[in-house]
From TrEMBL:
Organism ancestry: Bacteria, Bacillati, Bacillota, Clostridia, Lachnospirales
Source organism of this protein record: Enterocloster clostridioformis
The protein's name in its UniProt record: Uncharacterized protein
Entry-linked Pfam families: PcfJ
InterPro entries, A to Z: PcfJ (IPR025586)
Domain of life: Bacteria
Amino acid sequence: MSLDDRDIYKLWTRDELEYNRETLSYDYYTYFDLLINYFGYTAKALFLYADQLKTYEAMEDMGYLIKELYDYAKMMNTISDKFDKYPRHFLTTHKIACRNYNRMKKEFSEDLFKKRIMKKYECTFGDYQFIYPENIQDIKDESVQQNNCVSSYIDKVIDGKCHIMFLRKKSAPDESLVTIEIRNDRIVQAKRRFNNDVTDEEQKVIDNWNKKFSNKKEEVTA
């Protein structure tokens, strides 16, 4: 085996931090664990494959390799979970996969978005209603009307990292009012036009929504 102890350490420990708006802290994870837990790789096969790539494709930086392999697996799994986990010519396969993924992304992103829609989040409180966008264009329209950056969250919705919803008046459901970000069944961000803070009345409605879905989670775990 051409891998040395330093290579193995890099493969095993290359990590990433992601800010969690709900806990106001950073979530830590390693690419090695993600490949095993979410994409069906095995530790032994990963080490053997890394050794093969170092020997035959001159990939010396194991930290870079494991991240590239994770990016490849995540991208290919979006298309089909029957992808080749250990392609013989990884560098070439990865380039071809990126090209094909980018070509197909526009076609299947709308379908992926629709699979993420959570109609259970829609409800009303007094004069207000929570609306889940029907398609990607709805979010783009919201971004334009609100003069905010919510359109940049589309990929996060597709990847299952969050949900975007609209809080609007029942009497004017087509008029933008408040843009909402949801993570783990909780509203973690709510902004009016130009990213201004919500009113006290709107905040009470948001608190009621959080209470409603917090109670539902407690009922499930009870």
